[in-house]
Amino acid sequence: MDIKSVDVGSAAERAGICAGDTIVSVNGEKLTDYVDYIYFCAQKKLSFRILRGRENLKLRCKNDEYEDLGLTFTQPLLGKKHICGNRCIFCFVDQLPRGMRKSLYLKDEDWRYSLVMGNYVTLSTITKDEISRIIRRKASPLYISVHTANEAQRRFMLGNKNAIPIRPLLKKLARRGICFHTQAVVCPGFNDGEYLFKTYSFLKRLYPAALSLAVVPVGLTGHRQGLCSLEPVTPQMALDTIKEVEKWQQECLNSMGTRFVFAADEYYLRAGLDLPPAESYEGFAQLENGVGLVAKFVDEAQEAFLTCGAGRAHVSVVTGQDAFPFINALAERAKLECGARVYVYAADNQTFGGGVGVCGLLGGRDILRAVSGKTLGDKLLIPASALREDNVFLDDMTLEELGMALNVPVLPAADGYAFVRNLCGESQGNTD
Ligand code: SF4
Description:
Number of helices: 14
Order of helices and strands: EHEHEEEHHEHHEHEHEHHEHEHEHEH
Number of domains: 3
Bound molecules: iron/sulfur cluster
CATH topology of the largest domain: pyruvate-formate lyase- activating enzyme
CATH architecture of the largest domain: Alpha-Beta Horseshoe
Strand order of the largest sheet: 6-7-8-9
Largest sheet: 4 strands, parallel
Number of strands: 13
Strand content: 15-25%
Distance between the termini: 38 Å
């Protein structure tokens, strides 16, 4: 690995490493990617083999545990993602409409990204060498899609008859000190009911290596032509699942001191039930999976209301169909307590169709359709989760294009604090 730069005052600088050097090894081992890098950052004593021109150097330094070594490399530390070898019956990528940006069609399955970014992986095609590397590098926690602990059913759901059995693999990882969050994407008739109970029971036995289980309803878009026939989770099914999950939570709380298993927000929204309070999500470890998002947002908003001013803002808000009742309730409070004039609109998701109601999957054009010709006030608040990192919506419309089309500033609200601040004017205290 070639060094591009070395941070001033860093462990690498103390060792005498310079830009332009090549790292041959660290503590006798090769440094190949980011996983190695963070592993070495956690070591207290470091011995580098360095190539500098024709010189072969051995440099040493001490490092505060988990302090970044301070190195930047000329090549990316996490190269191309590995591609998955499955054909899951519920795969969201297979249900994308045509013509979206290329990167969205990528079916990645790379445990390194699971470690670094929290991406879910099935580990269905992982090699023995990679398993050894996970263990050697203490790559933990990982995010593992179990779906069902019934091996035959899992192979069917993954569309991969050669999928590596998950039960022995998870047991091995647990024995070797690797922790993991897990998920089951529930497809009615395939892995719910007794299957789900057995999955929960199996994973619970792996606690504390198994840190949590998210129960997530299958997402179905309007683009399923030619795919396996799947039923959506109905309100009654959602109600039944919540009942089961909450019973299991109580069991786990009594025996393990954690709820361990969590139902995704969508279950509560579909069942028309209130979301559990924020504290019952125990730190929101499965937030990216839509578990606790609403509770966290509402909790932040309520905290922000305690310190917000009476700004009398004139604002509009657009959200997805699912979150509309919660957003609307917060808007009503802003009207009452802060004298704000607020208009809340729910956008239909025509980008994906099929009744997709979550705000994170709204396209820019969905938002445009929902608010065109409506009263917008001085600004339009949109869910930040609908934007990718480069301020582009899933349908490739940019934030700027949306603002220009509406002729009003469009502001993404990243959390409940920002949301209330924009509804009611600046807060008087620091809520971030
Ligand atoms: S693992 Fe399954 S759901 Fe994930 S990308 Fe591959 S086929 Fe799709």
